[in-house]
Recover the amino acids of this structure.
C-alpha cells in the first residue's frame, strides 16, 4: 500500500476528495501527512478533522528552500512516506525533495497543460477567451508545470462563464480525476 503525503496551501477541496476516496476504498493508499506552508489555511482544519498529522511551516522562518525541504524530508522519512501528492501547493518543489522523490511526486493543475502554466490558470483561460480548458495531472520536475503528463480531462468554457463558475466546473472534475488517476498509477507502476 502506498504511503503518501499531500502538500497543500489553501482550502483543500482536493485534499478532502483524496481523504474521502481513501475512506471509501476508491484510492488504495494511506495518507500519512499533510504538509502545508500557510498556517491559516482551511486544509489544516480538514486534516485535523480527518485525524491526519500535519506539518505546517512558514517559508520565511527558514534560511532558504533547502532548509525547510530538508526538514520535510526528515518527516517523510520518519513516517515511511514513499509518494508525494501536490494538491494546490503553491510553491515550486526544489532539488532537495526532487532528488529523493524523483518520479514519485505528482501535481494537479487547473488547465490543459502546456497551456496556462503557473498561477491563476483559470483566470488565464477566461482572459484568453478559450472555449476548452481542463485539468492536468502530471509528474513534477524542476520546471513550472512542465513534467510528464499522466492524465487530462476537458472542461468546456460556455458563453457568459465567470471565473467562479469555471472554477466550480474545474474543481468538480478534479475531485474525481485525481483519486482515480492516482489509484490507477499506484496499481500499475512499481513506484
Ligand atoms: C486546485 O484547483 C488545483 O488544481 C490548483 O489549486 C487549486 C487548489 O484548490 N493548483 C494549481 O493552480 C497549481 N499550479 P483546493 O485547495 O480547493 O484543492
Amino acid at each position: 500500500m502506498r504511503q503518501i503525503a499531500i502538500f497543500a496551501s489553501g482550502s483543500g477541496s482536493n485534499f478532502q476528495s483524496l481523504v474521502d476516496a481513501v475512506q471509501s476504498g476508491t484510492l488504495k493508499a494511506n495518507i500519512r501527512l499533510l504538509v502545508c506552508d500557510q498556517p491559516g489555511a482551511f486544509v489544516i482544519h480538514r486534516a485535523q478533522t480527518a485525524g491526519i498529522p500535519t506539518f505546517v511551516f512558514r517559508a520565511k522562518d527558514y534560511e532558504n528552500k533547502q532548509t525547510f525541504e530538508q526538514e520535510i524530508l526528515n518527516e517523510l522519512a520518519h513516517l515511511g512516506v514513499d509518494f508525494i501528492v501536490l494538491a494546490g501547493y503553491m510553491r515550486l518543489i526544489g532539488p532537495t525533495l526532487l532528488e529523493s522523490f524523483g518520479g514519485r511526486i505528482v501535481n494537479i493543475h487547473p488547465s490543459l497543460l502546456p497551456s496556462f502554466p503557473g498561477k491563476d490558470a483559470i483566470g488565464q483561460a477566461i482572459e484568453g477567451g478559450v472555449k476548452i480548458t481542463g485539468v492536468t495531472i502530471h509528474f513534477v520536475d524542476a520546471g513550472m508545470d512542465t513534467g510528464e503528463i499522466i492524465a487530462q480531462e476537458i472542461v468546456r468554457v460556455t458563453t457568459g462563464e465567470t471565473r467562479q463558475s469555471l472554477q466550480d466546473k474545474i474543481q468538480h472534475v478534479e475531485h474525481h480525476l485525481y483519486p482515480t488517476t492516482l489509484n490507477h498509477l499506484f496499481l500499475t507502476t512499481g513506484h
Notes: Residues 8, 10-15, 87-88, 108-110, 121, 171, 174 surround glycinamide ribonucleotide (CB under 6 Å). Residues 163-188 form the longest helix (26 residues). Residues 97 and 112 are 25 Å apart (CA to CA). The mean pLDDT is 97.
